[in-house]
Fold these 3 entries.
Entry 1:
Amino acid sequence: MSHYLTLQRPQAASRQRGASIVETMVGILIGLIVVAVIYNTLIVAEGFRRSTLGVSDAQVTGQLTQFVLGRELANAGNGVMSGEGVDVLANCTDATLRPMPALIENNVAADTPTGATVQNDRLTVFYSTAQRIVHPVRVEDPVQAAATDPITVASPNGFRINDWFIATDRVGSCTLGLVTAITQKGPTYDPYPPAGAGGFVALAFTKKAGATLAYPTGSSRVLNLGQNMTRTTYSINKAKLQLDTTDDNPGLAAAVTAPLAQNVVLLKAQYGVDTDNDQIADCWTPADASNTCGAVDFSKAVFTGAAPADMAARIRAIKAIRVAVVVRSEDQAKADAANATLVGQSAWLFNCAANDATCQSRIQLDNTVLRDYFRYRIYEATIPLRNSIWNAP
């Protein structure tokens, strides 16, 4: 048998496939470039988003603040300036009971961040919510010194339990009270039968601590302030840069403070004064002793100190309040390395068309207010004190 030996040709080695180290490194480099581009795009987009949201936040804060202050100032003086209310209460020794619709405290250092050249103001608004009668009524029975002695007035439907009121002798003594009970008086005070139908009622009340009670019959008056007498102070919390509201109702044991809006940098307010008695504000002045309107001092010291002879006239002369608030965004924008020394911007408050020093009481804001890289917005409003205008003598 024949055997054939078959010789097989050896096969060539298989060719290797894949990426070399050089190709791998090039691929990684390209990937890193793509990632860097994407991240840069995201950073730019985030910057625009933050800027847009910052402006939006500042606008919402400014509009809210402007709305609240405008609403409160529109109500300022309601009930306390009606009829002869100004004349009756203007000389109250207790300054918190004077019929001052809006009281401005100028340049309060306690509310101003350190280093700021423009200081914050405080604004206090006072009005009542009486629903039945807003005219002072006459006291018909002498009030004794004891707090348990009632006040008798000729106003059967003018008061209800838990109404606040101010009793005054129209000379200087003023008492804040809270009605606790109402009783009809008998025929001694009623010339028309049946008893009590003449409209005389006795008001039992609790009084503010330290107040005096001794008012002569006939000349004394009682002004109803309703269930919710409102005396609110608006101020800046310099540590938190927020606008606070403080319930300064003089009948409360302690003032209650609550935040209203965040990121409020500055609050400024000025009086619009009628100097020629035509019921139009023709002069603007800060609440200081600069005597810019008819050489009359409109500082807080005057309205809260010993009452001058023309106190009622000074209160009536204030016909409007203009308010400016500066608000900022929640977050800072990214600093620009090319402008690393940038410290702020400049602007004007209460400017006018002339845009020069002839603009009454305008205020320049320098870079101690508009500083860093926050987004700022300025809101201004002029609010007529309609209760002062409507109740002009």
Entry 2:
Amino acid sequence: MVVRAPAKLNLCLYVGERRADGLHELRSLFCPLMLADRIEIGSADADEVICSAVAGENLAATALAALRERGWPSPPLRIEIDKRIPVAAGLGGGSADAAAVLRLADGEVGELEALAASVGADVPSQLDPAFALVSGAGEGVERLPDPGEFAVVLVPFEPGLRASEVYAEADRLGAVRPAAELEDIGGRLRDAARGGASPLSYAELLVNDLQAAALSLRPEIGEALATLERAGAAAALVTGSGPTVVGVFEDIVAADRAAGALPPRWAGAIVSGPARTA
């Protein structure tokens, strides 16, 4: 069996104060992309998760272990992940892989949403990848209609950034919002997106509160932001906790044209569009 684990694009990310559990309250529009990891699943003598691109903690392995702890009776599996989503790039690749593993037990293990939240904050939204307004620390997922046409140019940077470091820097910079403001923003995002409009029609809301923190830790991403703006992006921002920079364009043709005009140092730019679920 081969399954896909789509990247998650934060079209915006508004960050509130740190909660008692150590996580931050947020409001975001999550959009799955055509860019996706390829996961091959087969039988084995013992469970094994293979991903040469990820050193250390592997959320897919954590997800499989969590299913076993819940008594999932599937025979042992060999899960091999072909990473196409850049690692530690703010694109939710690890969470997408973990959610793909959890989906294998859909209907066989109860309360998958709670189990997903125990694996990682972004995993619940990836159980059923779809355009959504996300709240809480990622556990609140309100599905919305697929957005209208747009495409993106992604400029990844190496090495990646750890989300915990970026959030800590945002706290240090005071780049968080009070609860009332966050609630108001959530309503504005819902109103703007629920009719299936293209994100270009509400480009002023495509804001990432973690951008200042990511720039503080990795100043060189500022040049990529400026270059994408000059290339005609309706919005250019850091995606998620970074360091990947995304430019939003009207369609795949415009995104291809912009990517082709980028300086040679960003020859690894990725052009993608939203994964349609309707």
Entry 3:
Amino acid sequence: MKPTRPIKSISLFYRDDNPDAVQWAKKIGTWLRAKHPGVRIVTEKPQAVIVLGGDGTILAAAKKYRHTNAVILGLNMGHVGFLASVRKQNQFLPSLDQFVKGNYSIAKRMMLHASVLREGKTIFEALSLNDIALQNILGIVEIRVTIEGHHVQYIRGSGVLVSTATGSTAYNLSAHGPIVMPNIKCLIITEIMDHNIPTPSIVVKHNKRVHLRITSFRKRGLLSVSKTGEAVDVVLVSDGETIFPLQKKDEIIVRRSSRLVQFAELEKNYFFRSLQEKFAFE
């Protein structure tokens, strides 16, 4: 593997409620100070971010450090691990040693930008690495999907999902969407529990804009936003965390973001190895 820049400053990112990650953070800190004393552990503007956790933690780190252009190295301590650079704990320190020395390559991952328009005005925006979902969690919503003025889907079901190639192994996979190699820049449109005749997922080029229009749903107000108490039925969900309530006739535009997230890759064909392990391919 062609060497990249050696690492000079690192931030450690993990969830405090994950005791294994807390212990590993201490262990890595001690190891770095002994093995690579020239590497600084910092809290702001790091060259690299070492993430201890699952895919959800890696997503959170990617969003937090998206303005720094830092390289993300994920050490898998979760259940899925598609976003992680290293899957097995006995490989954490040897892999970190190679990473700090610059023996890694950089994979730049595309992000999505979603805008919610109500009566022609933008009222909400979200940034996502994995996916943007429109959902009526407890009922049916009707959504018209348009690309460049062409109606490509009319969904009457639980909702619709627009994901990146990175997100193709997340919610998109659970919704029976296609798995796409993460270095392919595209948008994947997948229906969620459509009550009409099922339509296949659509993979479109990264420079296209996907227009989603909420045409109808039954207002029941069985759910509410915890912060405001507002009754909701249909919501926009970004990467499973950021939630925004939607109304009839709202239009959501999903496009490629100008921002990219940099992930470290330590071995060739890592994506295919992940598929082999997760699906027990022979």
